[in-house]
Amino acid sequence: MIETTETMTTRDGVRLVATVWRPAGPGPFPVLLSRTPYGRGLTGPGYHLDVPRLVAAGYAVVSQDVRGSGDSGGESRFIAGEAEDGHDAVRWAATRPWSDGNVGMFGDSYLAITQLLAAQERPEGLRAIAPHVCPGGLYECVYQPGGIPNLNIMLTISAIVLGPLELDRRIARGTATPGDKQEYLAALARLDELYARLPLSDQPLLKDLVPMYAEWMDNPDPLAPLWRAGVVDHSRIEVPALVSTGWYDYFRDASIEHYERLRGDSRLVVGPWTHFSHDRDICGRDYGDQASQDAIDWTGVHLDWFGHWLRGEPLRDRARVKLFVMGDDEWREEADWPIARARRVPYHLAPGGTLTQTPATGGAWSFAADPGDPVPTVGGAIMSFDAYGPLDQRPLDGRADVLRYRTEPLKERVEVAGEVELVARVSSTAASADLAVKLIDVHPSGRAELLTDGITRVDGLAPGEVREVTVRLGAIANAFLPGHRIRIDVAGSNFSRFGRNLEKGTTTVHAPSYAVLPTIA
């Protein structure tokens, strides 16, 4: 394997640096390109493929520092501008002496959205992409619909990832010292204090290193000019995409939406994974021998994909959609997503904390919403190093500000596969109220395993007004087994996964309110 460092110049004169690994033979070779803000290398954030194996299979693999990162010049624009730079990078890669002119793109997260943005520019030579755990756009990274900040994700990424990377750049330029970085990292031990600061944009630790964080927090309006760049135009993407994500990835629904809007020759793979973890076990929940990316040969999946589109080889795996069905803990192939045979079954919130398919004729249930004592996040699609994903929700059992509704123990297996939502009629003593909702699988042992969650904000509530709202909990594929219970929890916060509503009040959920579970017969 030959390793070289090469540079290119963008259309506006910025120098971008890349590492190239290629076979020792004469070539030329098809090219697999990734574009990263996290530091180019054989391992690191955004890479879950075996690069030496890709090279051994006859590909030149290119890892490029995006503008304003690593050794590349220019100022970081975080997603904005990646369409034009991506186009230029593909054209550059397609015309190198070691390239045969056929380019594919791969990578996770930020490296994934750079693929879609480049593809919409239709650069000559781009044949296929493979975006994994891909955000939907800059605004969708930062906010939930309604302007609720994805606080855990964006503040953690800014503090844990972007801040240290900027310090590394400054150390390399001589404008900062290793001692500055040690002092910064020591401050990260108080990450909970950063979450609690108000206003959210007031983060002295990030003011100089990641100034765009404050700009994000000060612009919750999706129509603000800030968000116009970095929006994916699916109608312009012509190349096929191998889209993949995990049920506990915080870009799960955005990834699935990419597949739904692209379709054509594109494919979708969803495993029992988080944004960073692709093993069989998530925080003690073991999904079995076939659950991990190693078990399904993730690099081999990509070699099959790119071999077909870049070399014209037969596509061995022709499944359009592959899902890992939790509960059953097994993979299944589907003709498409959403699954056509899924029925939208309503489960009604009913008196006594019951969840039933029988419509409730009356009832109203209230909880306190106090930003000074928010319901703490326990698991889910969060950025954490030790507690995330399908965590047991019983640590919250003592809180009176959480409404809980559950079925009787199931007599038969119930498979839910599709988009889950709660349709609720709500009122509040405050003019603004949040509904934070969870879907939970309660095991016979009592373990209350979180499957998915969502939140929405209801603004402009008049005294006594009852308004119907829909809370999207996102996509899931889970089999509730006999003896298990289906549970829906409703509260006014889920902090620090989501930013708090700063209005204090009492929120009431009125019947009829119901969860919609897409059920496979």
UniProtKB/TrEMBL annotation:
Molecular function terms, GO-annotated: hydrolase activity; methyltransferase activity
GO biological process: methylation
Keywords tagged on the record: Hydrolase, Methyltransferase, Transferase
Organism listed in the record: Nonomuraea composti
Domain called Xaa-Pro dipeptidyl-peptidase C-terminal: residue spans: 303-516
Annotated SUPFAM superfamilies: alpha/beta-Hydrolases, Galactose-binding domain-like
SMART domains cross-referenced by the UniProt entry: PepX_C
Protein name: CocE/NonD family hydrolase
Phylogenetic classification of the source organism: Bacteria, Bacillati, Actinomycetota, Actinomycetes, Streptosporangiales
